[in-house]
Structure prediction request, 76 residues.
Amino acid sequence: MTNDEMIERLGQAQQRVMSLTVAKRLLEKRLEKVEERAEVLEELIMDVVADCRDGAKGYEIEARIAKVMERFVADD
Prediction:
């Protein structure tokens, strides 16, 4: 393998590493968003259960769920 070929392969490897680094950062951001949404959904479930125990009306529970879903849509 010549020097030029080695330099070419090294350049390709560096580009691949940079590409993977960017992809990793994007995935980390997506994971963070998913974790945040999971926390919000967990809170929603607990609130809905509490509402059911307290005898809340179905439309009140639906409104609570819709409000959370609207936040999710707005975040996208």
Q: What stands out?
A: The CA atoms of residues 15 and 21 lie 10 Å apart.
